């Protein structure tokens, strides 16, 4: 019997966890090295905490809107920062313990430390008790990403914050200035405005969510206006200044916005520093790791997956890429990940989600599409909630009615978009979705109405 493939996985986020599980289940001898928290720091110290806070903020909004549901006004509500922190920490801890238990049950050797390549078949792992050399036949770099801090700013964790530092605040800021109006920026604007903070959102372009459907972005801006979030459009930040207990953000056009705290939400950068990539022959540390369609680096037996590659930075995509790497490490066939139909979601009020081709992309490519839509206001299940705002929109090929993409705005959009993603991947025609018998009443019926 030939010896088991020695597979070194650096990073235990969605990509690393998926690769380790697949490879171990297939008989590989897997060593997984994690520097911070099993489950990945990007996942458990950023993504999951933010979504947990969104759930709490949405719950507060629902209680405040109880009058719309025929109940008495509950009166003033005050969030408890300590209990909010306890809740998000407990969720992250549960997920971490669950993943570690699953990996160890598959025989994965989980080690807490920092790995650094010393050659194309060896790495040094710095553990609590000292350094140890790990030799491997195949390896995967899956170290994720870290919040990007622009050159003109310094995140001190006190008044100027990255997304990971925002969770450490003992109380909601008096006035939070959010720099960046992408998915992270608008989610934090939603969170802290729900928790009672005054919020100013700096959008460097003409609207929030420039990567999303324009109609969806307009719905979110309408919600922000109603709750008092100030959106400064065309405000590209260039400088930060501390003034005692206040922070000023100076913009390129001369505007200056002051608040008690500033949150930097200007994107993510690959976490590839200190990995010894050059020693392995992959490339320089500190940059995105270049890979081909099968996640292979310049050294064919070393793979990279997830945010560290600098491509579409989604946990779901990272897990799919890690699965490809895990299969290839076992010399099993694997298809490249198709990112074109990946579902994406923004967890605000209302939720916004999309998958597949979007109107702006079609217009830029000169491609003709048919756009059909339906409003939640005509849906019985939506009307039972406090805020029936939203819509579902489908894009299809006018030649054969194949569903090419879609967007959902409103309650449970992140769940509903899965139907669209499946329709895109399966190349379903609108008629198939229109004639699918769905539960009544349900929000999913809005998608069928859009198909009709």
| Tally of DSSP helical segments | 12
CATH superfamily of the largest domain: FAD/NAD(P)-binding domain
Radius of gyration computed on alpha carbons: 23 Å
Structural class: alpha/beta
CATH fold annotation of the largest domain: FAD/NAD(P)-binding domain
Number of domains: 3
Classify the helix fraction into a percent range.
25-40%
Q: How are strands sequenced across the largest beta sheet? A: 3-2-1-7-18
How far the N terminus sits from the C terminus, by CA atoms, comes to 59 Å
Total number of beta strands: 23
On the 0-100 scale, what is the average pLDDT? 93
CATH architecture of the largest domain: 3-Layer(bba) Sandwich
- Uncertain runs: none
Which CATH class of the largest domain is shown?
Answer: Alpha Beta
Strand content: 15-25%
Largest pleated sheet: 5 strands, parallel
Shape, please? Answer: globular
Short descriptors:
alpha/beta, Enolase-like, domain 1, FAD/NAD(P)-binding domain, 3 domains, 452 residues, 12 helices, five-stranded parallel β-sheet
Task: Report on the architecture of this protein.
The protein has 452 residues and is α/β, with parallel strands linked by helices. It has 3 domains: 201 residues, 3-Layer(bba) Sandwich (FAD/NAD(P)-binding domain), CATH 3.50.50.60; 107 residues, FAD/NAD(P)-binding domain (3-Layer(bba) Sandwich), CATH 3.50.50.60; 102 residues, FAD/NAD-linked reductase, C-terminal dimerisation domain (Enolase-like, domain 1, 2-Layer Sandwich). The protein is 32% helix and 25% strand. The strands form 6 sheets. Strands 3-2-1-7-18 form a 5-stranded parallel sheet, with helices on one face. Strand 5 and strand 6 form a beta hairpin. The longest helix is centred in the first third of the chain and has 25 residues. It starts with 5 loop residues before the first strand and ends with a helix.
């Amino acid at each position: 019997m030939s010896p088991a493939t020695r597979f070194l996985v650096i990073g235990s986020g969605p990509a690393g966890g998926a690769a380790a599980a697949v490879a171990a289940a297939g008989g590989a001898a897997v060593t997984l090295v994690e520097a911070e928290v099993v489950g990945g720091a990007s996942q458990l110290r950023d993504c999951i905490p933010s979504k947990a806070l969104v759930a709490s903020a949405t719950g507060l909004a629902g209680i405040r809107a109880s009058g719309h549901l025929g109940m008495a006004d509950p009166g003033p509500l005050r969030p408890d920062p300590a209990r909010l922190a306890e809740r998000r920490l407990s969720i992250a801890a549960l997920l971490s313990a669950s993943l570690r238990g699953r990996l160890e049950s598959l025989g994965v050797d989980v080690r807490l430390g920092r790995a650094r390549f010393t050659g194309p078949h060896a790495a040094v792992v710095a553990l609590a008790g000292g350094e140890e050399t790990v030799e491997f036949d195949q390896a995967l770099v899956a170290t994720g990403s870290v919040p990007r801090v622009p050159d003109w700013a310094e995140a001190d964790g006190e008044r100027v914050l990255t997304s990971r530092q925002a969770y450490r605040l003992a109380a909601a800021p008096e006035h939070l200035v959010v720099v960046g109006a992408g998915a992270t920026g608008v989610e934090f604007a939603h969170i802290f405005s729900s928790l009672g903070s005054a919020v100013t959102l700096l959008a460097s372009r003409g609207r929030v969510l420039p990567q999303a459907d324009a109609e969806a972005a307009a719905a979110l801006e309408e919600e922000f206006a109603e709750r008092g979030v100030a959106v400064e459009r065309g405000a590209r930040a260039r400088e930060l200044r501390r003034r005692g207990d206040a922070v000023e953000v100076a913009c390129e056009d001369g505007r200056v916005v002051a608040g008690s705290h500033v949150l930097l939400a200007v994107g993510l950068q690959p976490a590839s520093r200190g990995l010894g990539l050059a020693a392995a022959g992959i490339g320089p540390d500190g940059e995105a790791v270049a890979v081909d369609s099968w996640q292979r680096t310049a050294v064919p037996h070393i793979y990279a997956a997830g945010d560290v590659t600098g491509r579409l930075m989604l946990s779901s995509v990272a897990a799919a890429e890690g699965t490809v790497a895990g299969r290839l490490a076992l010399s099993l066939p694997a298809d490249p990940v198709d990112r074109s139909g990946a579902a994406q979601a923004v967890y605000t009020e209302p939720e916004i989600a999309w998958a597949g081709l979007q109107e702006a992309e079609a217009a830029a490519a000169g491609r003709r599409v048919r756009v059909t839509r339906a409003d939640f206001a005509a849906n019985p299940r939506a009307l039972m909630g406090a805020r029936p705002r939203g819509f579902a929109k489908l894009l299809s090929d006018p030649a054969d009615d194949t569903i090419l993409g879609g967007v959902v705005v409103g309650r449970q959009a992140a769940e509903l978009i899965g139907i669209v993603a499946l329709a895109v991947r399966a190349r379903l025609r609108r008629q198939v979705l229109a004639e699918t018998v769905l539960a009544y009443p349900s929000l999913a019926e809005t998608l069928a109405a859009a198909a009709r």
